[in-house]
């Protein structure tokens, strides 16, 4: 186990989290349902978390993993407020389509 | 062996992440996202970050996804009510994400001599993380408690039917 972790190059982890992040970006641009867009944002946050943990393990620094812990806390708070806003939006427009929300358009 | 595990978990994570975006039914999207989170937790275990693997499963796959499922079922969303974008906008989304991936991978090419320290087994264990968290990051830890209180109050206020 001591040597096992370094059999995987760090680049592979960077590549994997880049791909996951780009799938998240694609989800935000691809879908109109606000809940799926929220889930894509979660996916992007998780890609960044994976990258932070990989760097933390390869550089032997626990601060990166503590930072991931804080990211998870902030993500949980964000989702609680975001879903409450979505429920209010649904109550007013009877839809979670983000293209309905264009009243700020000039 | 570790390489195979990494590859299997990575392919699994990418495929289920793609299914999150591509499936029509929001409930299926949520279930695929749970699968993605489990694959990412597996990668954490490979990186010897056991504490974060467990926290990832409890917080994301447990708490956050249940919240999502409740909201989707509360709003009664399903395949019929799902809004659709035009093919052109979907194509633009795929091209934009692909270009971003090309830029990220291209920037990776120049950074090939990153210094890697010898592996220490107890970096990601809860004993070591607890020491770092409560010595160096005590103030952010307390501030995050206030953040949770604010988020809780905000969610309750938004959820009320009529605010007097």
Topology:
The complex is a heterodimer of chains A (106) and B (164).
Chain A: H1 10-30, H2 34-59, H3 63-93
Chain B: H1 2-22, H2 26-46, H3 50-74, H4 87-109, H5 126-135, H6 138-159
Helix pairs in contact in B: 1-2, 2-3
How is this structure best described in words?
The complex is a heterodimer of chains A (106) and B (164). Chain A is mainly α and 106 residues long. Chain A has a domain at 32-96. Chain A is 74% helix and 0% strand. The mean pLDDT of chain A is 87. With 164 residues, chain B is mainly alpha-helical. Chain B folds into two domains: 1-106, NADH-ubiquinone/plastoquinone oxidoreductase chain 6, subunit NuoJ (Four Helix Bundle (Hemerythrin (Met), subunit A), Up-down Bundle); 120-164. Chain B contains six helices and no strands. The longest helix of chain B is centred in the middle third of the chain and has 25 residues, at 50-74. Chain B is globular, with a radius of gyration of 20 Å. The chains are: A mainly alpha (106), B mainly alpha (164). The interface between A and B is large, with 76 and 86 residues.
Spell the H/E element sequence of chain B. HHHHHH
Measure the end-to-end span of chain A: 60 Å
Low-confidence stretches of chain B: none
Determine the most extensive contact between two protein chains: A-B, 76 and 86 residues
Arithmetic mean pLDDT of chain A: 87
Describe the main β-sheet of chain B briefly. none
Helix content of chain A: over 70%
Report the CATH superfamily of the largest domain in chain B. NADH-ubiquinone/plastoquinone oxidoreductase chain 6, subunit NuoJ
Overall mean confidence score, pLDDT of chain B: 87
Alpha-carbon distance between the two ends of chain B: 62 Å
Radius of gyration of chain B: 20 Å
Identify the CATH architecture of the largest domain in chain B: Up-down Bundle
Rg of Cα set of chain A:
18 Å
Report the structural category of chain B.
mainly alpha
């Amino acid at each position: 186990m001591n040597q096992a972790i370094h059999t995987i190059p760090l680049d592979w982890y960077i590549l994997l989290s880049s791909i996951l992040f780009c799938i998240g970006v694609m989800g935000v641009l691809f879908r109109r349902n606000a809940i799926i867009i929220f889930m894509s944002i979660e996916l992007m946050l998780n890609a960044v978390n994976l990258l932070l943990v990989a760097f933390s393990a390869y550089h032997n620094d626990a601060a990166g993993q503590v930072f991931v812990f804080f990211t998870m806390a902030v993500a949980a708070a964000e989702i609680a407020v975001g879903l409450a806003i979505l429920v209010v939006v649904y109550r007013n427009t009877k839809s979670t389509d983000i293209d309905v929300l264009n009243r700020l358009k000039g | 062996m570790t390489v195979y595990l990494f590859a299997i978990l990575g392919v699994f994570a990418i495929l289920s992440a793609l299914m999150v975006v591509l499936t029509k039914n929001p409930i299926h999207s949520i279930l695929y996202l749970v699968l993605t989170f489990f694959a990412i937790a597996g990668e954490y275990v490979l990186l010897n970050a056991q504490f974060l693997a467990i926290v990832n499963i409890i917080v994301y796959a447990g708490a956050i996804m249940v919240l999502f499922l409740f909201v989707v079922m509360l709003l009664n969303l399903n395949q019929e009510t799902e809004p659709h974008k035009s093919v052109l906008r979907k194509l633009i989304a795929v091209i934009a994400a692909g270009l971003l991936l090309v830029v990220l991978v291209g920037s990776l090419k120049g950074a090939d001599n990153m210094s890697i320290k010898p592996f220490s087994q107890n970096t990601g264990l809860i004993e070591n993380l607890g020491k770092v968290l409560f010595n160096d990051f005590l103030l952010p830890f307390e501030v995050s408690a206030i953040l949770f209180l604010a988020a809780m109050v905000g969610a309750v206020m938004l959820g009320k039917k009529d605010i007097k």
